[in-house]
């Protein structure tokens, strides 16, 4: 077995061990240790972590500063919300959801009707965000738009979607959609079903992390990093950097759509405030603080920042924003690899102060030292053997 094969085998063993440990924590320890309320909060944070995995792939590996992931998160969330609203209305033998009846809307809008079917809703959640990202990516990356221009454009899309949804009364307006009773036929007020939603979110997170790891360790992952660092050189080698970027952008949108679809039944509400500019930046901050160039950094950063926001905002309602901003500045200025980059620094610091090991004997019992004699021009194969 070659050295590279040994390293790959070692990496695979570490990955299997890491996934096993994560599964034990998520499926065993967390449900047993947390209350129903805290478990629901953790499920919400896992949705943010799913979005963060996609951002880590697109931004950390591909160099695309995606400030508009709220767009794809919102598409998945609203499709799920529309399906759940229509399912609740059908169960109550109503023609339109309750909020439409209150607003005086008696006929279901045409763009709602396809999502009354559960299979169509699931397909829409999986396909529509990725398809929109593919169209946007083709138009942007083929024109070689990158850097700050791409970031501003993606942020403008998130702002435009939030403004559009705010003015649409048929989709809830600025208050959004809420009061969901069932999730594919299962009642959401049942504690058992609430716990099952956590397990679904945990399983989805492990799945997207596995997909991202496979992409990062593949030839495509190497090309994505090469495009980030030397785009023109990759183009000179015969690859189209635009296509490589589009794939990462589409995968990130696909993950965000799934996260939004899970967020809706877990939290119980979706509104334009959850998908605009501010949430999109919050996704990015979690990834930056955790460590955008690593696989687990975005996950841990998203969960940690969301947990800190919930915990500290309970005690310091007006101070969390300043704490978050200060932490972001510290990471950007002094820890570009994120908080997960502290681990290699700690190892280097520990090794620096570790006492040196005493050197062992150079020659063992019965060993022979073979020292080649300098050439004299007569016999270049002469050797001197010294018995120990």
One letter per element, helices H and strands E, the order comes to HHHHHHEEEHHHHEHHHHEE
SS class: mainly alpha
Number of strands: 6
Overall shape:
globular
Description:
The chain is mostly helical. The chain has 14 helices and six strands. The chain has helices at 3-33, 36-61, 69-91, 98-103, 118-141, 148-166, 191-217, 219-229, 231-236, 241-267, 277-290, 297-315, 320-334, 342-352; strands spanning 177-178, 182-183, 186-187, 269-270, 368-372, 383-387. It has a two-stranded antiparallel ribbon with strand order 1-4. Strands 2-3 form a two-stranded antiparallel ribbon. Strands 5-6 form a two-stranded antiparallel ribbon. Helix 2 packs antiparallel against helix 10, helix 5 runs antiparallel to helix 10 and helix 7 packs across helix 8. It is globular and about 75 Å long. Residues 363-388 have low confidence and may be disordered.
In short:
This protein is mostly helical.
Quick tags:
two-stranded antiparallel sheet, 388 residues, mainly alpha, 6 strands, 67% helix
Note the topology.
Blueprint: H1 3-33, H2 36-61, H3 69-91, H4 98-103, H5 118-141, H6 148-166, E1 177-178, E2 182-183, E3 186-187, H7 191-217, H8 219-229, H9 231-236, H10 241-267, E4 269-270, H11 277-290, H12 297-315, H13 320-334, H14 342-352, E5 368-372, E6 383-387
Antiparallel strand pairs: 1-4, 2-3, 5-6
């Amino acid at each position: 077995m070659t050295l590279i094969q040994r390293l790959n085998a070692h990496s695979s063993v570490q990955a299997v061990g890491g996934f096993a440990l994560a599964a034990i924590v998520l499926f065993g320890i967390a449900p047993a240790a947390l209350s129903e309320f805290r478990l629901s909060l953790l499920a919400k944070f896992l949705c943010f972590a799913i979005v963060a995995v996609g951002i880590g792939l697109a931004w950390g590996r591909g160099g695309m500063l995606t400030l508009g992931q709220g767009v794809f998160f919102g598409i998945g969330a609203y499709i799920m919300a529309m399906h759940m609203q229509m399912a609740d209305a059908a169960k109550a033998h109503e023609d339109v959801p309750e909020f439409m009846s209150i607003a005086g809307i008696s006929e279901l809008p045409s763009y709602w009707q396809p999502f009354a079917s559960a299979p169509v809703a699931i397909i829409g959640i999986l396909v529509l965000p990725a398809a929109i990202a593919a169209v946007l990516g083709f138009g942007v990356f083929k024109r070689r738009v990158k850097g700050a221009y791409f970031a501003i454009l993606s942020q403008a899309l998130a702002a435009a979607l939030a403004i559009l949804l705010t003015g649409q009364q048929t989709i809830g307006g600025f208050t959004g959609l809420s009061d969901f009773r069932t999730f594919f036929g299962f009642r959401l007020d049942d504690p058992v079903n609430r716990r099952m939603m956590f397990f679904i979110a945990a399983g989805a997170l492990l799945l997207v992390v596995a997909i991202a790891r496979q992409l990062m360790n593949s030839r495509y992952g190497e090309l994505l990093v090469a495009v980030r660092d030397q785009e023109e050189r990759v183009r000179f080698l015969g690859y189209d950097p635009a296509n490589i970027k589009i794939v990462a952008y589409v995968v990130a949108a696909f993950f965000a759509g799934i996260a939004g679809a899970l967020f809706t039944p877990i939290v119980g509400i979706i509104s334009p405030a959850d998908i605009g500019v501010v949430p999109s930046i919050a996704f990015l901050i979690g990834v930056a603080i955790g460590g955008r160039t690593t696989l687990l950094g975005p996950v841990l950063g998203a969960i940690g920042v969301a947990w800190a926001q919930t915990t500290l905002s309970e005690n310091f309602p007006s101070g969390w924003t300043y704490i978050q901003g200060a932490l972001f500045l510290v990471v950007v200025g002094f820890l570009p690899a994120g908080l997960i980059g502290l681990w290699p620094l700690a190892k280097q610091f520990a090794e620096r102060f570790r006492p040196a090991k005493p050197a062992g004997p150079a020659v063992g019992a019965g060993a022979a030292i073979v020292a080649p004699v300098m050439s004299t021009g007569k016999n270049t194969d002469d050797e001197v053997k010294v018995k120990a």
